[in-house]
Structures are given as structure tokens and as C-alpha cells.
Write a structure and sequence with these properties.
Number of helices: 8
Shape: globular
Helix content: 25-40%
């Protein structure tokens, strides 16, 4: 059975965040848990103000008993944010780690004047704060039992995007169905792949594919985090943040092609997510994604 986290109504989102958004109208894709059904709401479009974008998000339970992923999209007048957090299921309170990370990052976005003066500084500082809060969740626990999470974060403003990630939650930049770029996982398997020691097909079934080298939480020391400088956007470019439940069973080219086909963004995400869950079968993980299409000026 699949469960999907669906968006609140636009009115509820505006009312909830109005005091935090510096008086700019916005829509926020805030996850609300459902069980046993799949929402078929249309993708959101914001074209009345400075940003002209279409955005959507999904979160599927997969073969797990609990959804420890968190996904969100925030769209304001002059900036937008994609966020996917994957609570690490092998550790206690993975869902709490993901929830705390989401809350810290979304609060930071809505309390920062936009467009952001220093996008990379914002991403680095915000991930650092999220790490500190996740560490606090497990301060009384042995190190190996502390809550942990991976995270992918994409800021969009001024015709460009800036990326940050920790662990193996990924970011993709797709143009006309072709992959322009993706983030590189903090994992041993990613290193083997980049060194040419294994193929992409071998990486999908490698015995260490689920092991990450750094994450939010656990050790108090600030983890390594990858920051990507300004990436210019063209009309109809699609940006994707996703957990390993989505990209694990699917090839990068398959994801790019799926996002490049005609139709609403939400329907494309749902098709890719469902395909990933079905292909992984009983081994399927929580499968979450947030995507945004840049519509240009």
C-alpha cells in the first residue's frame, strides 16, 4: 500500500506562513500524512508576481512501515526552495530527525529577506543549524543510536539555482528531457562510480549502496556538505530534489526523460515514484521528491 504526503490548500499555507513571509503572498508545499490513498491534485503554478514557476511534491511509503522522509516546497515572490530530508531508518527516531531538519530550514527561509543576498552562505548556515538541532535530539543516546538524516536543498531566485546536500539525497537539473547535472552522493559507491571502478548498473545493486559517509545528526562535528554555485536557468528547466527511494531503482537518464515528457509536473513525479516503488518491490524505500519548473520571465 502506498501512502502519499499531500499539499495543504493554498489558502491554509498562506495563512500559516503569512507572519513569516515578510508580507509577500506565497504557497508552501507542506507535507500532510495520508494513508491508503494517492492524491491527484494538480501541480501549482505561480505566475502573478516575480517568480513564474510550476512546482509539485510527492512522498510514497513504499515497502516500509513508517515514512521517515519529509518533503517541502516554499514559493515566495522573489525566491523558492525545494527540500527533501530522508530520516535514516537504521537509526532511532529517523522521522524526528527529518521533521526537525525540515522545520529549521523552512523557518530560516521564511525569516530571511528575499532575494537572498548570499545564497551559498544561507544554505551552509541553515544546514549547520539543522545539524545542531538533530544532534540535540540524541544527545543522551550512544553515538551509534543517535537520530540522523540526509538532506537535499535547492534555492531558486534571480533566474538561477543554488544547491546544497548532505548524504545521498540528490538534486537534478533537467533541460528538455536531458540531464544537465546532478549532485554527487557522499558515499563509497559514488566514489567508486566517479573513479570508473564500477558502472552505473553495478552501482544500483552494490552491497554498500545504502551506506553514506556523512549526514545530519549523530556526531556533533559539522558534517561535510556539498554546495553548488549559481546554476543559470532557462525557460522550462526542471529542478528535482529526491530521496534515494526514487533514484535508487531508476537510472539518471530515466529520471531526466520522465521529467521532460509533456504534462503536469505532479503527474510526472507520481509516475516516476510509482515506477521506483514497483521496480524495487519488497525492497522499496520511502520515495520522496520535490520538483520545480522554471517558466522564465
Amino acid at each position: 500500500m502506498l501512502a502519499i504526503m499531500s499539499r495543504r490548500s493554498a489558502w491554509q499555507s498562506r495563512e500559516e506562513w503569512r507572519s513569516r513571509a515578510y508580507a509577500c503572498l506565497s504557497r508552501v508545499a507542506t507535507p500532510v500524512r495520508r494513508t491508503g490513498d494517492i492524491s491527484v491534485d494538480k501541480s501549482n503554478r505561480c505566475m502573478d508576481f516575480f517568480l513564474r514557476v510550476e512546482y509539485a511534491d510527492i512522498s510514497l511509503l513504499g515497502g516500509r512501515e513508517e515514512n521517515q522522509d519529509r518533503v517541502a516546497v516554499a514559493v515566495a515572490e522573489k525566491a523558492a526552495l525545494l527540500l527533501v530530508v530522508d530520516g535514516m531508518g537504521g537509526h532511532a527516531h529517523g522521522a524526528r530527525a527529518a521533521q526537525v531538519t525540515q522545520q529549521v530550514i523552512m523557518d530560516a527561509f521564511w525569516h530571511t529577506p528575499q532575494p537572498l543576498f548570499d545564497p551559498l552562505g544561507f544554505l551552509h548556515l541553515t544546514l549547520g543549524r539543522a545539524h545542531e538541532q538533530v544532534v540535540k535530539l540524541g544527545v543522551q543516546l550512544p553515538l551509534e543510536q543517535r537520530p540522523r538524516a540526509t538532506c537535499a536543498l535547492c534555492l531558486i531566485q534571480q533566474h538561477a539555482s543554488w544547491w546544497a546536500h548532505v548524504g545521498d539525497s540528490r538534486l537534478y537539473h533537467v533541460r528538455h528531457g536531458a540531464l544537465l547535472a546532478r549532485s554527487r552522493d557522499h558515499s563509497h559507491v559514488e566514489l567508486l562510480l566517479r573513479e570508473g571502478l564500477i558502472s552505473a548498473e553495478q552501482a544500483q545493486t552494490h552491497p554498500m549502496r545504502n551506506f553514506v559517509e556523512c549526514c545530519l545528526g549523530g556526531d556533533p562535528i559539522l558534517p561535510d556538505m556539498s554546495l553548488t554555485r549559481r546554476r543559470p536557468l532557462e525557460p522550462d528547466d526542471v529542478l528535482l530534489a529526491c530521496s534515494d527511494g526514487l533514484w535508487g531503482p531508476l537510472a539518471d537518464a530515466e529520471i531526466a526523460t520522465g521529467l521532460g515528457t509533456p504534462g503536469e509536473l505532479r503527474a510526472k513525479l507520481l509516475e516516476l515514484g510509482t515506477r521506483a516503488v514497483q521496480r524495487a518491490a519488497s525492497a522499496s524505500d520511502n520515495t520522496s521528491a520535490a520538483a520545480l519548473r522554471w517558466l522564465g520571465d
